Amino acid sequence: MFNTEILALAEKVLDLARSQGQMIATAESCTGGLIAGALTEIAGSSDVVDRGFITYSNEAKNQMLDVSSESLARFGAVSEAVAKEMAYGAIAASRADVSVAVTGIAGPGGGSAEKPVGLVCFGLCRIGESPIAQSIQFGDIGRSDVRRRTVLTALEMLHDALST
Fold first, then answer.
1. What is the 3-state secondary structure (H, E, C) of the chain?
2. pLDDT > 80? residue 156
3. What's the domain count of the chain?
4. CATH code, domain with 158
5. Which residues contact 112 (CB under 8 A, 6 or more apart)?
6. Cα atoms found within 13 Å of the Cα of residue 136, Cβ hemisphere only
7. What is the superkingdom listed in this entry's lineage (predicted)?
8. For residue 1, is pLDDT > 90?
9. CA triplet 100, 103, 108: central angle to 5 degrees?
10. CA dihedral angle for residue 60, residue 64, residue 70, residue 74, rounded to 10 degrees
11. Is the bond preceding 131 in cis, omega lying within 30 degrees of 0?
12. How far apart, in whole angstroms, are the C-alpha atoms of residue 115 and residue 53?
C-alpha cells in the first residue's frame, strides 16, 4: 500500500517520537487518513500514535477540531489559517504532543485560479506552542501523486519537528 520511501520516513518519525516520549496526532482532509495509515503501517506504532482525525467536510473540521466557522468562510478550507487551526485542534482534542494537519485540492477537479489543483496547506503544532503553516503547490500531477507527496511532506514536517 505504501512505498518504501514513505514507510522508511514513517519509521524514522516513530523512532524519534518514541525516543522523546512524544505522542502524535494527525488531522487530515485531502489525504483521508493516509498519514495516520503510513504511521500505523509500522508495527508497534501504537505507543506513539495517539489518533488521527479525518475531517473531509467543513462541518467535521468545525465539530472535531474546533476550526472556526469564520476562518472557513473567510479563508476557505484550503488555507494556512485553517491548517493551523486543524493542527491546534488535533493537539487540543488528543493526548498528542505534536500534530500535523493537511488540507488541499488533490483533484482532478475542484481547483480555481486562486487555489489550483495540487495546492496543499500544511499545519504543524507542538503542545504549548503556536501552530505554524506552509503551502505547497504540487501542480496538477494527478490525485494519487498529490496525496502521496502530501503524506511525504507531512512526515518530513513531523520528522523535522521531532528533531529540534
1. CCCHHHHHHHHHHHHHHHHHCCCEEEEECCCCCHHHHHHHCCCCHHHCEEEEEECCCHHHHHHHHCCCHHHHHHHCCCCHHHHHHHHHHHHHCCCCCEEEEEEECCCCCCCCCCCCCCEEEEEEEECCCCCEEEEEECCCCCHHHHHHHHHHHHHHHHHHHHHC
2. yes
3. 1
4. 3.90.950.20
5. none
6. 14
7. Bacteria
8. no
9. 140
10. -50
11. no
12. 23
Query: How far, in Å, CA of 69 to CA of 29, rounded?
Result: 16
Q: Which domain holds residue 121?
A: 4-163
Dist CA 7 CA 12 (whole Å): 9
Closest CA to 79 of 139, 134, 157: 134
The reported pLDDT for the residue numbered 131 is 98
Radius of gyration of the chain (CA): 15
Amino acid at 8: A
Instruction: Look up residue 120 and give its three cell numbers.
Output: 496543499
27-79 residue pLDDT tens? 999 999 999 999 999 999 999 999 999 999 999 999 999 999 999 999 999 99
**pLDDT tens digits for range 10-33:** 999 999 999 999 999 999 999 999
